[in-house]
Amino acid sequence: MCSVLTKGLVKRLFNDKEDPYNRQIRPTINETTAIHLKMQLFVARILELNERFQLLKANVWLTFDWVDEFLTWNPEEYEGVENIKISSDLIWLPDIVLYNNAGTGYEPYLQNKLVKIDHTGHVNWAFPHIIRASCDLNIANFPFDTQQCDLKFGPWQHDCTELVMEGAGDETVFRSDGEWDMVGLAIQTNQFNYPDDPGVRYYDVTFTIKIRRRSMHYVFNLLLPCILIASITLLGFLLPVDSGEKVSLGVTVLLSLTVFLLLIAESMPPSSVVPIIGHYYISTMALVSFSLLLTVLVLNLHHRGPYCNRAPKWLRVFVLGTLARFLRLQPAELRQRKHELDRNSSHIPTGNDNLDHLDEGRSLDNKTTEPNRISSGNKSRDGSSERKEDVVALMLRLVSHVRYIREHYQDVTESEDVQNEWKQIALVVDRVFAVLYVIGMICTVTVLFFNLT
Questions:
Q1: What pLDDT is stored for residue 405 in this prediction?
Q2: Among 53, 248, 257, 310, which is 20 to 30 Å from 406 by CA?
Q3: DSSP string, 73-127
C-alpha cells in the first residue's frame, strides 16, 4: 500500500501538474529568490597523500540540503506520507564542483543516487565519494610534518544572487590509515570575483583538512639506520691503521647513506625545499666525508718512511705530551717501551775502544816489524812472519765488518725510533679525530630534533 501511495505521489509531483516539473530550472517560484544550500563534508579516510605530485586522495561523505519549492505536498492527502526517496536524476541538483580537482573530470557525483524529499520541499542528498585534489604541501619537516589541504567547493554557474552556500562538517567519522591522523577540519565560506565572469560574485566553501603524519615508520626505516650507519664510521677510527680497512669502511658507509638519500629524494617533490631529514642525511654524509679526509691524514702520519725527519719538538710536546696524557693513551706503557729501547741501545756492541786498540796494535806491529825486516833480511820470508801478517789482515777485515754492522744497526734503530714516533703521533691524532667526529654527530642529531620542537 505504501509503494502505491509513493508511486501516486511521484506521479502527481512530476506529471499531473499543469506545469510539469523541469529539472533544468532552478526550483524557486520567485526567480529573484536565492536557494540556500547547506553543504556538509565528513572525511572518512585518507587514502593517499602524494608528496611528489602534491595530490590528496580521500574518501569523504558529502551531504547537501536545500528546499525545492516545486516538490511539496499535503501528507493528509497521501495517508500521512511525509517523505519519499527517489533517484537524484529526476530533480534539480546544484552544480557544485571541486575547484582544485585533480581527477579525471569535474563531475563529483555518480548518477542514480537517491535523494530524500520532505513534504515541505526539503531535499537531502547524501553520498560517499572519493576525491582527488591538488594540495600545497609543506615538506620542510618531513617525516614529522603536519599538513593542511584545502578542498574548495562551489557552484560553477549559479552566482551569489541565485545560490547561497553554507558549510559544515567534522572529523568524527575519520578512520586512520596507519600513516595519518586527523587533527582538525576548518570551514570557511567566501565570496569571490573570477576573471572569466567579472563583476559577478560566487559563493564557495573551503574545507581545510589538517592531518598529522605518524612518523614511527620513517624513524625505524630511515632515521635509525642512518644513525647506526653513521655510528659505524666511528669504528673506523678504532681500527688499527695496519689493517688497511679504514678507508674502505668509510667509503662503504658513504655509499650506504647515498642509497638512503636517493630513497627520500624519490618520494619528495622536485622543489627547492629540502626536508629536514634530507638536511640530516647531507650533514651526516659531510661528516663521513670529512672523516675520510682525516683518515687519510692519519694514514699519512702512520706510514712515514724511514727517510722522514723526526717530528718537530712542538709536535712531540703537544701531541705525545699534552694530548696523549689527556686521552689516557697508556703513558706508563709508552715510557716503559722507551726505557726498553734505551736499554737495548746501551747493549749494542759499539766496539769503539776495541777497534781503536786494534788500530793501535796494527801501528805497533808495523813499527816493530819494520826494523826486524831491515835487520833480519831474508828471515822475514819464513813461514811464521807470513802467518802473522795473514792474521793481522784478517783482524783488520773483521774490524771493518764489525764497524759496518754497528753503523747499520744504529741506522736501523734510529729509523725505527722515527717511525714509532710518527706512529704514536698518528694514534693520538686518530683518537682526537674520533672525539671530534662524535661531537659532530651528536650536534647533528641535536639540531635535527631541536628543529622539530
A1: 74
A2: 310
A3: --GGGGTT--EEEEEGGGS----EEETTB-SS-S--S-SS-EEEEETTSEEEEEE
Residues of the chain where predicted confidence (pLDDT) is lower than 50:
1, 331, 333, 341, 345-355, 358-380
Q: Rounded to an integer, what distance in angstroms lies between the CA atom of residue 164 and that of residue 152?
A: 15
Write out the three cell numbers for 42: 565528513
165 contacts 190 by C-beta, under 8 angstroms: no
Amino acid at 432: V
- Structural Rg of the chain based on CA atoms: 48
For the sheet with 146-155, list strands across it. 96-98, 146-155, 197-213, 180-194
Per-residue pLDDT, 219: 83
Are the CB atoms for 445 and 269 separated by under 8 Å? no
d(CA 218, CA 278): 13
Cα dist from 201 to 25, 96, 150, 278, whole Å: 21, 15, 20, 44
pLDDT of 337 reads 52
Q: What is the arrangement of strands in the sheet containing 83-87, beginning at the earlier edge strand?
A: 83-87, 114-118, 122-134, 55-67, 35-50, 163-170
pLDDT in tens, 76-112: 887 788 888 888 888 899 989 999 988 766 555 555 5
Q: What is the predicted pLDDT for the residue at 367? A: 46
Per-residue confidence (pLDDT) for residue 167, from 0 to 100: 93
Query: Is the alpha carbon torsion for 5, 79, 21, 66 positive or negative?
Result: negative
Q: Which grid cell is 3?
A: 509503494
Query: Is the distance from CB of 298 to CB of 430 less than 8 angstroms?
Result: yes
Reported pTM: 0.68
What is d(CA 252, CA 232) in angstroms, rounded to the nearest whole number? 10
Assigned C-alpha cell, 264: 627520500
Alpha carbon distance, N-terminus to C-terminus of the chain: 66
Q: Residue 360 corresponds to which cell in the numbers above?
A: 793501535
User: In sequence order, which ranges of 150-305 are alpha helices (DSSP H)?
Assistant: 216-218, 224-238, 246-267, 276-302
DSSP letter (8 states) at residue 310: P
DSSP 328-353: T--HHHHHHHHHHHHHHHHTS---HH
